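User: quick one - fold this with nicotinamide-adenine-dinucleotide bound?
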Amino acid sequence: MIKNKKILITGGAGFIGSHLFENLIQEGNNTIIIDNFNDYYPGKEEQIEEIIKKCSKSTEYSIIKGDLTQESIFNKIDRDIDIIFHLAAQAGVRYSIEHASEVTKNNIVSTVNIYEFALKNEIKKVVYASSSSVYGNPIYTPLDEEHPKNPISPYAVSKLCGEFYADLYFKEYNLPVTSLRFYTVYGPRGRPDMAIRKFFELILGDKEISIYGDGEQLRDFTYVSDIIDGLILAGEKKEAIGQVFNLGCSNPIKVNELVEKMYKIVGKNKNVRYIEKQKGDVDITYSNTKKANKILNYYPKIEIDEGLQKTFNWQRIYYKKNIV
Ligand code: NAD
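Assistant: Sure. C-alpha cells for the protein plus nicotinamide-adenine-dinucleotide:
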C-alpha cells in the first residue's frame, strides 16, 4: 500500500489512471494528474469531477491539463515527487494503424520527456505502463516476459520503445524504472473503444454485436482493480527496479465465451454477427505472471464472471444516465 506520498500520474484522467487516482487519494497520497484530456473518447472531465466530489476536504490533489510532448509543461509540475506512474499514451491498436505518425510521436516523445524529468529531479520511482501487445502473435503460451517481441501495430511498437528507453535510462543513468505489460484491462469507466464496454452498450440498446474474425481468439481479460494492485506493488517494491513484468489474469477466455457470459448477465438473447478480422489484432493473449507473483507478490483476485458483473453494475447506471 502506498500512503502519504507525493505521486504524479500521467494519463490520470483516462480509464486506468482515474482508478489509480481514486485509490491513491483515498490512501492520503498527495496526487497530481497530468493529462491532455484528448478527445479520443468523451467524459474524462466528468469522470474526474465525480471522483473529486467524493473526496474529503483534506484530500490533496491537483489536476494539470497539458501535453507531455511539450517540454514547457514540465515547469508546472512539482519537483519533489516520490513516484511517477506513467500511463499517458494514445491507446488503441486500430487507431494507431490509421494514425501511425501521431501515435508514434505522442507515445514515444512523452515517455522520453517523463524519463528526462524523472532523472533531472531524482525521482525515486517511475512505473511505466506497457502492453501485452509488444509480444505480437505468440510462439508459445502462456507468454512469459522472455517471449520474443514481434509487435504488429504502431501502438505496440511505441509501447515497446518505451520499454527500451526504460532499459536505457535504468542501465546507463540509474533511473529507478519498472515496466508493466498490461493484458486487456476492463472494468467500470472502461474505454469505449474496447470490447467489453462496447458490447454491453450494444446489448443494452438491443443492437447487434460485431465480432472480429471467428470469435475464437483468446483474451486474458484483467479486471482493473487487479491492475491497480500491480501498479501499486511495482511502485513500492525496490526489487522491481530495472525489471519488466506481465500483469494479466492468466485465465484467458474466447471472445465467443465472453459474449455468451455478457448476454447471460444482461438477460437478453444473443444477437451477433461476424466480420473481418482486424489488422493489428493478435490471436491469443495469455499471460504467465510467475515473475510478478514472485517479485511483486501480485496475485489477481477478480475472475471474469465477477469482473463482468461488476462492470455491468456500473455500466447499467451509466447507460441510463448518459445514453438513453
Ligand atoms: P486511456 O486512453 O483511457 O488513458 C490514457 C490517457 O492519457 C488519456 O486520458 C489521454 O488523454 C492521456 N494522454 C494521451 N497522450 C497524452 C499526452 N501527450 N500528454 C498528456 N496526456 C496524454 O487509456 P487506458 O486504457 O487507461 O490506458 C492507460 C495506459 O495503459 C496506456 O499507456 C496504455 O497504453 C496502457 N495499456 C492499457 C491497456 C488496456 O487494456 N486498457 C492494455 C495495455 C496497456
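One thing worth noting: The pocket of nicotinamide-adenine-dinucleotide is lined by residues 11, 13-17, 34-38, 40, 44, 67-69, 87-91, 106, 110, 129, 131, 159, 182, 184-185, 191 (CB under 6 Å).
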